[in-house]
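re: that chain from earlier
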Amino acid sequence: MLKNLQQNRGLVHLLLDLSILWAIALPAPAQVPSEYFGMQANSGVALQPPQWWSNPWPVIPFGSLRLWDAGVGWAQINTAEGVYDWTLLDEWLNDIQTFNIGDAMYTFGMTPQWASSRPNESPKGFEAYGKGAQAPPVRIEDWREYIRTVAIRYRGKICCYEIWNEPNQPGFFRGSPQQMVVLAKAAYEVLKSVDNHNVVASPSINCDSSGEEWLRRFLAAGGGKYADVLAAHFYVMPKGPEAVVSLIKRVESLLAAYGIDKPLWNTEEGWGPPSSFASEDEEAAFVTRTFLLNAAAGVERAYWYAWDNTNWVTLRLTDPRTGMPRRAALAYAQLSQWLTGAQIEQCKTEGHDKWSCRVTRANGEHWLVLWNSATTAPSNLMRNTDVRYFPCTTDTTARMSAIVIGTCPVMINQHQ
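^ sequence. v structure.
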């Protein structure tokens, strides 16, 4: 009994300490849907049909798939005016049904050379997208016709459409925000005319300073009217995952300034060069904290880039030699299983290092998720507290008599 009393006092002291921490301003708690855990897979980019896949279908559960860098862009399907090759896109959507994925989001963009207003342009480093891909189409009707054809063919199979990928980056779009508003308006009108249930996501900016300025100009030109969802890419490298909170809040403030109250989706997140992770445990901790904090800050969907990318990505979910999942993939799977259907009531931080999130799971259990973004230190709780670990916890840490709070989040049941 004395041990239990000491244990409970420790939990009380810990909870009292947390009461003085700074809280993330959250919307009314909503259940985290399975579709929140999005994924991208794009091994087909570097290969040629019919052998598109270099890795098998993801073996971990995920709720939604974003089709970008997947061999099914506008230029890859609509190879000439009136000519279409649906082979690979059909295959993707058949796989989504076969593996019981919640839904698919298709990203438009990257103009075919035959339709491009600058057909011979090819920025260095982006040659794989084809000549003329970054320029707006010379005729808006070519854009409308492609969107109409896709929407009719895949009505009821593709739920969501994203207008363009990172148009603030010259490697993806070499036009003005005002030109993108024209494209967004045309796409929105066509998609809604084919099926009013289609969910339309805005062009997804990359959230650096240039991306925020591009979004401001896009919204000022009226672009926010032509989307059901606002899309952004919240990469934080070379910072830690906690940096995503301020990025999300800045975008939300910008939307509020233009009177836009629509869901926010993070349609691409991950880690590119250079890699700065010393171990697979650190990578798994990054993935866990990233998805937890995106949900806490009000993001309704988050798509990881990418399951099988071995070119640009340096935090990889799979082993490039075997295709087998690494610890980061196991952490993604465990968090998605644990968090789906739950509500994140509040997240707090103390000194930007000590973090906690209060979570109510679908079964009514109340949990506290704790981590330290900078250091590792033992707590005043013993291991006989109801505690769970993610795959980023080392065996040594898990065996210690006192619970250690480090970069890998620890889950503590608040009902003893």
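The first helix runs from residue 2 to 18.
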